[in-house]
Amino acid sequence: TFDEFAARVFPRFKRYPYVLELFAEMDGLRYGEALRLLLRMPPRHGKTTAILLVIAYLLTHHMPNGEVQVAYVTYGDSLSHAKSREVQRYVRAAGCTIARGESAVNEWSVVETGARFCAGGIDTAWTGKGYTHIFGDDLMKNSEEARSGLRRDNRWTAWSVDLATRLDEPE
């Protein structure tokens, strides 16, 4: 389970009841089920770490519907790249290897499973690739951006036109 994986690769992560509920909600991903889930939680409650642990699980396990290709999207490249490094730490802690020559934080793959991970800002050019899983996390940089109708519209357009169209639906 995601909880057991989290305990193994990041033992200090506090798995509060709401984190366990989040893991349970996302459990269908382990079986190739499609999932659309919107989370609204206060900052600093473990949402991002829980998501990154789920991503690391997906990358390090052979999934029933074949190869895993994950896109992780935030408000900007610098944040998504920092979170990519965190996912790499969890992948390594799970005993897997990042492919040689793929030390870039924006795109890399796992040797043992062939799974691919891409990280970038919402405004990154996401064209030319498909993904089995797309995780959007902190798509707004701050409350000022969130209050801007124009910024919200632009982010929604980027999500629905540039990203959601890259999702390869499970068969």
Key features?
single chain, 171 residues, alpha/beta, 4-stranded mixed sheet, 11% strand, globular
Detail the topology: elements first, then pairings.
Blueprint: H1 2-9, H2 17-25, H3 47-60, E1 69-74, H4 77-93, E2 107-109, E3 116-121, E4 133-136, H5 143-147, H6 149-163
Give the strand line-up of the largest sheet.
2-3-1-4
What Rg is obtained from the alpha carbons, in whole angstroms? Answer: 15 Å
| Alpha-beta classification | alpha/beta
The SSE string, one letter per element, is HHHEHEEEHH
Number of helices: 6
Terminal-residue CA separation: 23 Å
Note the main sheet: 4 strands, mixed
Could you report the average pLDDT, rounded to the nearest whole number? 88
Helix content: 25-40%
Low-confidence stretches: none
The tally of beta strands, per DSSP, is: 4
Walk me through the structure:
This protein is α/β, with parallel strands linked by helices and 171 residues long. Helix content is 40%, strand content 11%. It contains 6 helices and 4 strands, in the order αααβαβββαα. It has helices at 2-9, 17-25, 47-60, 77-93, 143-147, 149-163, and strands at 69-74, 107-109, 116-121, 133-136. It has a 4-stranded mixed β-sheet with strand order 2-3-1-4, covered by helices on one side. A hairpin with a 6-residue loop joins β2 (107-109) and β3. α1 packs across α3 (47-60). The longest helix is centred in the middle third of the chain and has 17 residues, at 77-93. The chain is globular. The two termini are 23 Å apart. The relative contact order is 0.15.
